[in-house]
Every structure is written in structure tokens, then in C-alpha cells.
Amino acid sequence: MDFFTAVFRPFALFDSFWTLPEADTGAIRGSRAYVCQCGRPVFFRNSECLVCHTPLGFLTSTSRLEPLAAVPDQPDLWTLWKSPDGPRYRRCGNLHAIGCNWLLAGDANPGAVCLACSLNRTVSDPSVPENLAAWRALEIAKRHLVAQLMVMGLPVEPRQPHHPKQLGLAFDFLRPEPDKPVLTGHDHGLITLNMDEADDARREQVRTQMGESYRTLLGHFRHEVGHYYWDRLVVDTPWLIDYRTLFGDERADYAAALKHHYEEGPPADWAQRYVSTYASTHPWEDWAETWAHYLHMVDTLGTAMRFGLDAGDVELPYAPFTREALWRPEDPSADSFLKIANAWVELTGVLNEMSRSMGEQDFYPFVLTPPVVAKLQFIHCVVLQARQLPST
User: Fold this and answer.
1) Residue 168 CA: distances (Å) to CA of 120, 171, 184
2) What is the number of helices (H) and of strands (E) in the chain?
3) Which residue, 284, 278, 295, 280, is CA-closest to 228?
4) How far apart are CA 248 and CA 251, in angstroms?
5) b/e per residue, 242-278, with b = 16+ CB within 10 A?
6) Are 41 and 27 spatial neighbours (Cβ–Cβ below 8 Å)?
7) Which of 76, 86, 129, 330 has its CA 20 to 30 Å from the CA of residue 282?
């Protein structure tokens, strides 16, 4: 499945962004809406239907959560419920440890782990109950990320120790110790996550201390993987010139920029030029923050459409964005991107009001401005071109 099928193809099929066709063409398959063989809804993280107890598995080749049927006389092998004579599959070796419901090919070795789990390089001792609970929470967010990246057609390849020139992806989930602090960050494909972030109370405490309006595990993953794709899709490519025009020169002293941000705070006009205060720190962070918001947008919009959420009566806080807000208004994808940007403003208007109705903080506590929309379109164009690149 490619990115257009999952996200953009519906714009050519629907009378309006928020109107589903009478017959579901299967166009929106990047969402989190799935159905068991019994007809009841099941969800991305489910390994079993809670109604009929049919086993469920996530099939990466179709990005679908599928009902499974056991293969007679072949323990640990499964077929899709709808295709009992079709290919055989194994369940991820981490099913019982962390609830991973992803599938592997049937000829994989018993106990082998899926693509998402194979990206792990280090996990702090999972025999410690606190670490195991944190690992489970981190993996839920990571699987959500990896599934979205695959649907978008972006390269997702494990780091290969014997091929250092290939920029693969790897994760370290580490518990800090008194003499060994752990900083969440990215280093040439290696993403490190502080396992304390999996504690909701601790994460909320840090969010408040940092003056942030949003801090989630999935947000961390999307931000850090943005750094990875900057290294992979922008560095040493023709995109770099336009990147520097929009985001700034990444050769600026990063350590000095970070020090200035934490000591002096963001510039007074940051809200007019950046999607968040942290984005104003340095061009690298502006890219990663904007990339994360792009992933927020396309994933949430795809899910909203699949569930038929209607935002047609929402009052926009400002006039819809036009081509004047775009980085490249003449690009062939400009119209579809504008629909995404404006639909996002409509959708978040609904979701923010719903959050307020529950006495919670806004679902999306950010405001998009024309300079931010221009950066989002740049990322949109980079992603579309990346879909055409062969895997290394």
C-alpha cells in the first residue's frame, strides 16, 4: 500500500473531504479502523477480538489488522481467516512479553521477532517489572509509528552493524541511573528513548516544567524519527538548498543554540514562524518538530475519515489557507496539500471542543500560520518524492 492509497486518494473520490462514498472502496487503509470476522470493531493494538476471541495479527504487507485461523497440525502457524489456504504466518516472538501482535512469514524461525521489534538495539533489563511495563508502553507507540511510516511508503530498515554506510534505524530504550543519565535523542539512525517517559505522571511533570503544551510517547517517536529522515532524505540532496531557505542553516552551532533556548527562551515572534517553541531552537529542531506535526496530521485525518467523523459545521478560526501560504504553489500536489492543511484546522477545531467538553486540555494546542504551512508543504513534497526512491 502506498501513501496516496492511504491518505491522498480519497480527495479524488469524495465530494468533500468529510464525505465518505456510499461504497467503501478500500482507499483509506492507513487508519486504525478494523473489523473482526465476527463483524465487531477491533483496534490496532488488539491481539484478540474481545467479543469472539478470534486471534488477530497485524499484516505489514497490507497494513491491516487481520483475524487469524490456526493451521491444523502445525503449531504456531496461522492463516488469515478469510484465506485458509493462503500463506502461512508466525506471530512475533514478543507477543507474550510485550503484546506485539505483528506477523512474520511462516518460514521465519520460531521465536523470531517482527520488523518493528527487530529495530530494537538495547532495552534495559526487562526482567525488572518497572522496565517491562515501560517497554510495553514504548512499543505500542513505536508500532504505531512504524506502521504509519510503512503506509506512507518511507524506507524502514533495521540498522546493519556490518554495513555502516547504510543508514538504518535502531532504538535504545534505556532506564537512567544516578550516574548514567539518559537523554532522548537521535544519532545517525539510532534513536534513544528515556524509559522514564513511559510513566504518564513523570512525563506530565516534565511537560509542565518545560512549559510544553504537548508531550506524548508517540510525539517523541515522530520527532526523533524526523531527524533520521532528515539525514536520509535531505542531506546531500537537492532538497538541502530549499531546506535552508525555509528552516535556516543547520550548520549553525547546535550546542550554542540549545543553550540560548534554555537560558533566554524562544524569540518573541516564535508563534508567527514556528509550530512550537522548541522548533525555534535550531533548524534541525524546526524540521523535526514540523515533521512530527505532518505525521500527526496525515495519520489523524486518515483515521477520522475512516470513522466518518464530520467537521463540516466547524467554524474556522481564520480563512482557509490558499496557495499564497505555500512554499511551492505551482507544485502538482499543491491542491491536495491545501485540502490536508485546511481539513486539519477543521478537524482539530472539533477535537479541541470535545476535549474542552471533558475538561481536558486541547487535543491539538497549536496554531498553524502561513510560514509553518509552507514548511509542512516542503515536507509533504519530500515525502512524496521519497516514495519513489528504491530501498538501499
Assistant:
1) 12, 10, 18
2) 13, 11
3) 284
4) 9
5) ebeebbbebeeeeeebeeebeeeebeeebbebbbbbb
6) no
7) 330
**Residues whose CB falls within 8 Å of the CB of residue 75, separated by 6 or more in sequence, listed in order:** none
What is the phi/psi pair of residue 105, to 5°? -60, 150
For 361, half-sphere exposure in the C-beta direction (CA atoms, 13 angstrom radius) is 10
Is the pLDDT at 163 greater than 90, yes or no? no
Q: How far apart are CA 297 and CA 377, in angstroms?
A: 12
Mean pLDDT of 84-92: 96
Backbone angles phi, psi at 41, to 5 degrees: -70, 140
Q: Which of 379, 34, 70 is nearest to 230 (CA)?
A: 379
Among candidates 207, 211, 184, which has minimal Cα distance to 288?
Answer: 184
**Size (the chain), residues:** 392
Q: Which residue has the cell 532538497?
A: 239
* Set of cell numbers at residue 21: 462514498
Give the 3-state secondary structure of residue 42.
strand
Q: What count of other Cβ atoms lies within 10 Å of the Cβ of residue 148?
A: 24
CA distance 35 to 67: 8
Neighbouring residues of 276: CB distance < 8 A, sequence distance ≥ 6: 212, 213, 214, 289, 366
* Confidence band of 388 (pLDDT split at 50, 70, 90): low
Other CB atoms within 10 Å distance of the CB of residue 230: 23
pTM (2 d.p.): 0.90
Q: What is the pLDDT of residues 26-63, one digit of tens each?
A: 223 345 678 999 999 999 999 999 999 999 999 999 88
Average pLDDT value for the chain:
88
What integer pLDDT is reported at residue 317 of this predicted model?
61
Residue 174 in this model has a pLDDT that exceeds 60: yes
Distance CA 320, CA 45 (A): 35
Determine the distance from the C-alpha atom of residue 2 to the mean position of all C-alpha atoms in its chain, rounded to a whole number: 15
Cell of 131: 522496565
Helix ranges, the chain (H):
3, 10-13, 95-98, 115-118, 129-151, 200-210, 217-233, 239-247, 254-264, 270-273, 283-306, 334-357, 370-386
Contact, 350 vs 309, CB < 8 A?
Answer: yes
Q: Are 188 and 137 in contact (CB under 8 A)?
A: no
